[in-house]
Structures are given as structure tokens and as C-alpha cells.
Amino acid sequence: MKKLLLLIAALIIALIAGFYAFNAYIYNEKQGDGNVVTSYRGTLTGEVVCLPHADTEGPQTMECAYGLRTESGEHYALDLSVLSQENPPLETGQHISANGLITPIEMLSTDHWKKYDIVGIFSVTDSVQML
Question: Is the same domain home to 99 and 51?
């Protein structure tokens, strides 16, 4: 009888230890590599362009999703819907500087923007200056 009670106690201790080890593993997996990606406010300067497609194989559609190509060659989708003033008439080829919220592509929960070769979405909030 004593051996049976010791065996049951050892089994309960092993189950509890296993639960805590598994819980710690899940917690560490959810934490990722420590590089937290978040949106941030900033100013971007560049040229208004039609966003390039990520997949250039096969036929391409002719739609133009407005974006901004910075001097370093990075592309951002332009979102003017949250602009605090009237939307300026933008045309491809114009050089602008604007302030707003930059959302990295890793934060997006939709696949809609994956078809474009962009690093994020630039939501212009404050001003657009033509250069």
C-alpha cells in the first residue's frame, strides 16, 4: 500500500512538473526572438510611384496602387485617408515629404498588400509638402 501511495505521489509530481515545463515552453515560443515590430511615427521623403508587384512572373495588371519610393529604394503603400487636411492631388513622379504613421509589413494581418513589393504602409496624418 505504501509503495502504491509513493507511486501515485511521484506520478502527480511528474505531471505537475511536466505541466510547468510545457507552460514555460509555450510562453517562450509566444515571446518570439525579442524583436517586437510596432508602428511608429515618422517623416518620409520620396517619389510618388505606382507600387511594384512582388511577383513579376507572367502577365501583369495595369492598376496603379499609389505608393512612395524613398531615396533608399524602399516602397511604402500610401494611405491618405487619415490626413487631417484635404487630400492633395498626387501624381506619379511628384516628390513629396510627409509626416504620419509607418506600419511595417510584418504587422499586417491581411494578405492584400503581399502582392506588392513594399516594406510597410505609410498613413499620412499631418502634412504633405511638395518638393
Answer: yes
Number of domains in the chain: 2
DSSP output for the chain: -HHHHHHHHHHHHHHHHHHHHHHHHHHHHHHTTS-----EEEEEEEEEEEPPBS--SS-------EEEEETTS-EEEEE-TT-SSPPP---TT-EEEEEEEEEEGGG---SGGGGB--SEEEEEEEEEEE-
Using one digit for the tens of pLDDT, what is the confidence trace for 89-126? 888 999 999 999 999 988 887 778 888 899 999 999 88
**58 and 80, same structural domain?**
yes
* Residue-range definition of the domain harbouring residue 76: 40-130
